[in-house]
Amino acid sequence: MARSASVVTAVLFSLVMFVFVVVTAIYLVSTPFVVRTIAQVTQGDSEMPLEERLYAASMTASYVRNSGRSIDTIEYYRQDAASGPESIGHLLDVRDAFSVVRTVWALCAMSVIAVIALVVWRKWWNWLRLMIRVFAGLCIVVPVTFGLLAIFAFNPLFAFLHEVVFPQGNWQFPSSSLLIQVFPVEFWMLSMRLLVLLTLIISVSLVYLHKTLVARFLDVELKEDES
Predict the structure, then answer these.
(1) CA–CA distance, 175 with 82 (Å, rounded to integer)
(2) Which of 79, 113, 198, 214 registers the highest number of CB atoms within 10 A of its CB?
(3) Average model confidence (pLDDT) for the chain?
(4) Which residue ranges make up each domain of the chain?
């Protein structure tokens, strides 16, 4: 493989792998169990009774992931006099966004499996080493930058992400709304930090696995050459 082509493909594949890692982390953070746990930790920032909030948080997480009962969730937020219809509309948008996330995750996963299989078959170990270096750089620079922004500039970052994902602008609600009581800003601050941490953990694990893969197959090749 030519040097220029190797660099370009290594960068592109590193980006695909990084998107796969981030989407995986999003899925882990958004599971009902994790959402319920974060809600419990941040209970001091909500006026809603704990049991109701934990129930609503878990139910909402299941709904947006398309794994819960839609009727229960819709009926729960419909009773919100402050912003019931707006809350339901926003949850529908979040659910649609998660459908896109599932598709992106599946495409990235298939790409990663296919490319790694091709690398092993063609024995492109030098390319794999290059890709690991690029991917490792992404895994350090992007999560650390994002983590610092989440700590020191959370509100602008939160607003920017919502404006990008929900350009229709239906993501702002009064503090008295059920959606804000269930998911106050402190909930999102902790969720974002957990997302960064999981991204780092998964990324480091993948870098280790790739390096182990290269070392193992090179060792096998050396033994075959010696024999």
Answers:
(1) 9
(2) 198
(3) 86
(4) 3-226
| CA-only gyration radius of the chain, Å | 21
Among 154, 174, 198, 169, residue whose Cα is nearest residue 30: 198
Mean pLDDT over 80-100 rounds to 87
Torsion of CA 19, 25, 31, 35, to 10 degrees: -120
In contact, 105 and 27? CB cutoff 8 Å: yes
Structure token digits, residue 120: 């092993």
8 A C-beta contact, residue 173 and residue 87: yes
- Given a cut of 60, whether residue 222 has pLDDT beyond it is no
Q: Which amino acid is at 126?
A: N
